[in-house]
Design brief:
mainly alpha; elongated; 0% strand; 4 helices
Length: 90
């Protein structure tokens, strides 16, 4: 049973580039399906490293989203002002 996976344009280009590099270095011509099978097998065989990689990318992506949400309201505050609001110390 075949499943269709929709890749982003950049991902497709990266896969094509990797496939071309494999062909140049080893003279092995892979189909896109074979390349994806090898990549998935590699990820499964190296789960710990793969999980570390995913977590690093995930954290970076969330950090970038959080940074985009930060807005300058144009109000100058001091650490004393912030402490008084947070700790309810007028």
């Amino acid at each position: 049973m075949a499943t269709t996976i929709k890749d982003k344009d950049k991902t497709k280009l990266d896969l094509e580039s990797l496939r071309a590099e494999i062909l140049l270095k080893s003279n092995i011509k892979l189909t896109m399906e074979e390349l994806q099978d090898y990549l998935i097998s590699f990820a499964i065989d190296n789960k710990e490293s793969f999980f570390d990689y995913v977590m690093k990318k995930f954290k970076r992506k969330n950090y970038e989203k959080m940074k985009e949400a930060i807005k300058d309201w144009g109000i100058d505050t001091s650490n004393i002002d912030v402490d008084s609001v947070i700790y309810d110390n007028p």
